[in-house]
Amino acid sequence: MDDVDLVVVAAFDDRKNPQQIQVYKFDAAVVRDRFNAAYAARTKAKLLQKDNCGMWLSLDTINQHSPRSVGTGLADEYPPIAVYSIDELIAKNVDAHGFHGTSDYGRYRAPSSIAEVVDRARQQISALAGVDANAVKLELKIEY
Question: At 98, is the pLDDT very low, low, confident or very high (cuts 50, 70, 90)?
Fold first, then answer.
């Protein structure tokens, strides 16, 4: 993230019952500072940080007084730049892959791989941010 100036994040409003997608725009220096502080706190606490393995920070503030709470809370300090109703987005049925209107639903091809989902997300984020899709870098972490 050293060579970016801007970080755009799209997140659900509720993990268990999402109703909205909230889009945030952060100055990359602020995000870098948060990640550096979180990395330092986790390293000091001897929590394993693997090289080239993503480290996640909660957008919401975590008040656990633990190293994992360091750097959290960006969404509590910066309001979203856009909020989209998931129901309205589905009703409009418009995406970068030509799915328009409910009558086209039968022709819509659902993604068949995680890579395809990430690629579609990258393209949609690039359209929202007004940047080339190659400028959007996404990391995915699956926890079991």
Answer: low
CB 76 within 8 Å of CB 61: yes
CA distances from residue 17 to 10, 13, 21 in whole angstroms, order as listed: 16, 8, 12
Q: What is the pLDDT of residues 32-88, one digit of tens each?
A: 999 999 989 988 988 866 666 677 888 988 988 888 899 899 999 999 999 998 878
How many Cβ atoms sit within 10 Å of the Cβ of residue 5?
Answer: 7
Provide the residue ranges of all domains of the chain, joining segments of one domain with +: 1-85, 93-137
Q: With b meaning 16 or more CB within 10 Å and e meaning fewer, what string describes 76-91?
A: eeeebeeeeeeeeeee
User: Does pLDDT of 100 surpass 60?
Assistant: no
Whats the size of the chain, residue-wise?
A: 144
CB 18 within 8 A of CB 66: no
CA angle centred on 17, ends 13 and 21, rounded to 5°: 30
